[in-house]
Amino acid sequence: MTIIYRPLGRVSNIIQATGLEMSYAYDDLVFADNSVFLIRFDEKLENSIHLFFNTDCIETEKVRLEKLLRDAAKVEKFKIASVGLFSLKQLDEKEELEIEFMV
Question: Where are the domains of the chain?
Answer without folding.
Answer: 8-102
